[in-house]
């Protein structure tokens, strides 16, 4: 969801400035404004961002990849591969999910696909149908004790 705008420089030449939804480019530290897809939004294709992503009542088809957190709210239908730091699912996801931190499937949320995670929480009433691959990424041949 990148928008490119052209702005003139002081000497009248134009250069391109990238922005997200018409907002200024986020700070270089990756702490940009969250991206929110509301009930009237529809995403078909690939979204790659360094910001948090919240999908609220939207339809998503394709792929969502974020270095931040991804939240899929209750009324959302997602047919996509999801990747994020922490992923919280309260809606319906059909596709593989990778959470570098924690995957939470809450409420009446459902995931139909394989998951690759460091930590997993499945609340009462939520469902997961697929294979689970757990890797904390913290142990490199050392102590394998509990966390």
Task: List the keywords.
mainly beta, 13-stranded parallel beta sheet, disordered C terminus, two-stranded antiparallel ribbon, 147 residues, globular, 0% helix, 15 strands
Summarize the structure in words.
This protein has 147 residues and is mainly beta. The protein is built from no helices and 15 strands. It has strands at residues 2-8, 14-20, 35-37, 42-49, 53-55, 59-66, 70-72, 77-84, 87-89, 92-94, 97-105, 110-112, 115-122, 127-129, 132-134. Strands 3, 4, 5, 6, 7, 8, 9, 10, 11, 12, 13, 14 and 15 form a 13-stranded parallel beta sheet that branches. Strands 1-2 form a two-stranded antiparallel sheet. Strand 1 (2-8) and strand 2 form a beta hairpin. The protein is globular, with a radius of gyration of 18 Å. The N and C termini lie far apart (38 Å). The relative contact order is 0.11. Residues 1-30 and 139-147 have low confidence and may be disordered.
Write a compact overview of the structure shown:
With 147 residues, the protein is mostly beta strands. Helices cover 0% and strands 54% of the residues.
Distance between the ends: 38 Å
Series of secondary-structure elements, N-terminal to C-terminal: EEEEEEEEEEEEEEE
Strand residues, percent:
over 45%
Q: Would you count the extended β strands for me?
A: 15
Mean pLDDT: 80
Fold topology:
Layout: E1 2-8, E2 14-20, E3 35-37, E4 42-49, E5 53-55, E6 59-66, E7 70-72, E8 77-84, E9 87-89, E10 92-94, E11 97-105, E12 110-112, E13 115-122, E14 127-129, E15 132-134
Parallel strand pairs: 3-5, 4-6, 5-7, 6-8, 7-9, 8-10, 8-11, 9-11, 10-12, 11-13, 12-14, 13-15
Antiparallel strand pairs: 1-2
């Amino acid at each position: 969801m990148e928008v490119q705008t052209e702005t003139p420089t002081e000497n009248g030449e134009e250069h391109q400035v990238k922005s997200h939804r018409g907002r200024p480019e986020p700070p270089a530290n990756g702490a940009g404004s969250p991206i929110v897809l509301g009930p009237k939004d529809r995403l078909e294709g690939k979204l790659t961002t360094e910001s948090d992503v919240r999908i609220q009542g939207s339809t998503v088809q394709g792929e969502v990849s974020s270095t931040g957190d991804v939240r899929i709210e209750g009324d959302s239908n997602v047919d996509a591969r999801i990747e994020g730091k922490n992923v919280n699912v309260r809606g319906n996801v059909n596709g593989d999910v990778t959470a570098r931190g924690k995957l939470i499937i809450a409420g009446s949320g459902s995931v139909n696909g394989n998951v690759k995670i460091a930590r997993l929480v499945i609340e009462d009433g939520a469902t997961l149908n697929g294979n689970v691959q757990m890797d904390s990424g913290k142990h490199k041949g050392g102590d394998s004790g509990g966390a």
